[in-house]
What does this fold into?
Amino acid sequence: MGRRSSYRSTERSRKGAITPFGSRTDVGCVRDHNEDSLIVAPPLYVVADGMGGHAAGEVASEIAVGTIAKHAPEHPDALALAEAVRQANRAIIKAASESVGREGMGTTCTAAILDKDKLVIAHVGDSRAYLLGDGRLHQITRDHSLMANMIEAGQLTPEEARSHPNRSVITRALGNDPATEPDLFEIDVQAGDRLLLCSDGLTGMLRDSQIESIMTRVKDPQRCASQLVNEAIAAGGVDNITVIIIDIVGQREKQIRRIARRAKITVAFAFMLLIAVMAAGAYGSWWYLNHSAYLAAEDGYVAIYRGVPGEVLGFSHSELIEKTDVKVGDLPAGSADRIQDTLRVSDLDEAYSLVDQYREEIDSRKGASRI
It folds into this structure.
């Protein structure tokens, strides 16, 4: 069978938020078929590495991811995820008893549910979960393997374990024991962290320092997943290789939406305030121009104007209301001069009142002169 690969980039979660991720699985350079299975269905992510030979491992891993996908909770709930893994274990054992696959088939399983800043993981076997945070890679899960036990007992160093003839022996897997229990992890993560789920086809070929370097350097999650698989193939690719990379958004999207919403509200409020100020200014100007008045000379007579003399912003804002019968020349010198220079009054009523006053003064002077 030729090399089988799977690629994904981004997918819409059940709640509608976009979770950036990348994934790839590859048969490697030595095996003739791929016994790894994976599922990416945000918020659920699963890697399973089957075992049993003659395609039985592939059957076990596919049963595992399918069963977990069916029973997994929609939110980070460690106990509910553990029950989904137990269901997968029972399903594999039942399938083997019914001659689906073969007796003794099994699989590792590393399942994660991520929602915002909450992460839960259920783990069986030697597939792994890593978290990259602040530029440092941390292994979350502990391998259920003979090598891990010997390292913890001080019988081997991690470097010696990489080439040990029994390095592939695992001590816990789905499909072997109805009482198998997963290890559970509940972790608070934050925006900017990066989660890695992988089969041992990656960690058997690359050291943690190499994985950390690639995950730090390659920013796009799909390119990062592909680069990790390519490096493992270049290092020998002696096993199937499966990688899922998830970039943790956490509360960042919610914060960005909140900030954007506040900015829109602020802009809308400022715009409405500006419109209100402009409207108030326009109304105030209209009211002032339509309630102001002045007296001026028009062909030698006193004329009443509404508005203001001269121009405002290049436009005339005055209207001739009446050219009266009062001659400017009949007025006292001081009054005549003020009329010639335009005499502003508060409103038309005051203008008419002043004109009546001028008439009375003129008539009074004419009467006195006749006596």
